[in-house]
Amino acid sequence: MMHYVMTLLLFIVVFGIVVMSHELGHFVIARMNGIHVVEFMIGMGPKIFSWKKGDTLYSLRVLPIGGACLFEGEDGLNEKEGDAKDSPSAFPNASVWARIATVVAGPFFNFVLALLIAVIMVPNIQMHDTLISEVVEGSAAEEAGLHEGDRILKVNGERIYLFSELSVFAQMNKGATVEMLIDRNGEKIFAELTPKYDEKEGAYLFGVVNSHLVDVKGLRCFQYGWYEVRASVKNTYKSLLMLITGKLTRKDVAGPVGMAHMVGEIYEETKEDWRDVFVNMLNLTMLISVSLGIMNILPLPALDGGRLVFLIVEVFRGKPVPPEKEGLVHFVGLVFFMILMVVVLFNDVSNILHIGS
């Protein structure tokens, strides 16, 4: 029973922080530009409680899976008494650049949150750079001629800073050959490696080991925090591309229920030491914040990216798209995402039952 209570509480905290950060971005920039925020909402569904301060209603709702920052006059809704077309605080009456800033602020705040979390997290975990401490005998690295003391600079032309990025490359490429740029005592060398599948580890491995810990203190926290966020951003958009191209299956996708299950597993594995729980929850919050930021900036209806598309069109047209047409597009998008949420829910339950069987 305690396990389920802690799982629920940790999930609410983690997801709540990410959602609040996103909506706070919209809220702060909207207020700075004189846009009236009708309601600042955390959660979905029926209200648990709410309070009003000034012209804004602040509410906490029962389902901890989302939130919203509702603006006056947005999509023709949430209008004040009287004619919203003449209200200077209505969203449509703000300048197009103010509206663009307000829309972009949500995802931007997610990335800021991720960076702040990473800066707190990196001094409390073991950080490894890309220096090779050991080459495993018979491995792909040995066959490619890599040596102890080599420093890996790039993989397939992409600069890497963390040793953990290597394993991601190996898994995402599913054993495909990669090209590495190596720094060997100041000399730049190219090497081709085809990671080998290890039955014991259940993963593709290059066969290199790094036992060199980086001392992360002071300003280095920001440097390595940035490296962590950078790696998370790259992994997220690569995963999306793999999902679109069919290289990932539904078993690799998790929605809110799947994330809650993940929180429970992490808690169960680390509950003997509250510091391990704390650090792992920080890492998960960072990853979810990055994912939410990227997902919301995609140019899809009902998402921030979809609204941004209409605003960019307005910049080039010199006038807005008729609100009823834009509202219809976002409504269709909302219906689609509601259906998608149901599909993801069933997928999460199916994956959890499969794991438990």
Could you walk me through the main structural features you see in this protein, from its secondary elements to its overall organization?
This protein is of the alpha+beta class. The chain has 2 domains: 2-123 and 284-356, no CATH class; 128-212, Pdz3 Domain (Roll). The protein is built from 9 helices and 10 strands. It has helices at residues 2-32, 96-121, 140-143, 164-172, 220-244, 256-270, 274-297, 304-317, 323-356, and strands at 37-53, 56-71, 134-135, 151-155, 158-159, 178-184, 187-193, 196-198, 203-205, 208-209. The strands form 4 sheets. It has a 4-stranded antiparallel β-sheet with strand order 5-4-6-7. The longest helix is centred in the C-terminal third of the chain and has 34 residues, at 323-356. The chain is globular and about 75 Å long. The mean pLDDT is 84.
